[in-house]
Amino acid sequence: MIGGECPCVGYNSESSAVLGSVKRLTGYKIAGDDGDIGRIRDFYFDDDTWTVRYVVADTGKWIPDRGVVISPDKIGQPDHNRQALPVTLSRKRIEQGPIIPQGLPISRSDESKLSKHFGWISYWPNAKEKPPSAVPIPVKSGNGNGCETDGFQLRSAHGMIGYALEARDGQVGSVADLLMETADWGVCYIVVDVQNWMEGEQLLLAPHWLNSVCWKTGQCRVGASRCQVENSPRHESSVRICREYEICLCEYYNRLRSQRS
Fold first, then answer.
1. ω into 105 cis (within 30 of 0)
2. CA distances (Å), 28 to each of 37, 140, 170, 175, in order?
3. How do beta strands 164-167 and 219-221 pair?
4. Predicted TM-score (pTM) of this structure
5. 83: buried, middle or exposed (CB in 10 Å: 19+, 13-18, 0-12)?
6. pLDDT for 150-171, tens place per residue?
7. With left for phi above 0 and alpha for psi between -120 and 50, is residue 65 left, alpha or beta?
8. Which domains can be identified in the chain, with CATH numbers?
């Protein structure tokens, strides 16, 4: 739906909230208690709450044959000067972890093993009960016309980059990045490169402002016209997001919602 509650994360002096860019953080070192574990390769978020559930590690030749994911429970704040993400895990603990396949999907059974081994909190409903099996659903596929709506799935943040943003009367642009609030690792904004805008000008959309996301076809749909989207407040990619911009953005989309109701 268009409009609704504003994320209003803000970067003002009274707020400690910080936004992390998926593109910027990719490649950062993952710094464990006793040495580097690897580098950030991706982020997996659930498509219900749009909360990051795992940071995906590229461990290189150290652990080449299985997936290594780390829950935000064990993650600190990114150190941009060192280009590092601190985690409260040791290399030995990682090495002794459950063997899980690389990539998506991750079965709930494997997630339960990870949670038990590393001692992080299970996030899915009824986590104490026997976990259901995950159903493989492609993150990005050109086949099929349906959109998945039953239950939630883990999605790749990098897999979403390149998705088309579709207005009511045609495509407006494409997803260029995702911004996460690094205090709770929720996805706050989808960054969109709009076709008719100047280079460096971007559109920010909160996930709950979208009407739907079709994961099979790689499309985000918004209940506004192309003209309405193109007239929304623009964000300069080189400028830090401020509270005033967020409020202006939210008010604009709330006005669009009021006009449609």
1. yes
2. 11, 25, 37, 22
3. parallel
4. 0.86
5. middle
6. 456 899 999 999 999 999 999 9
7. alpha
8. 22-118 (3.90.50.10), 158-260 (3.90.50.10)
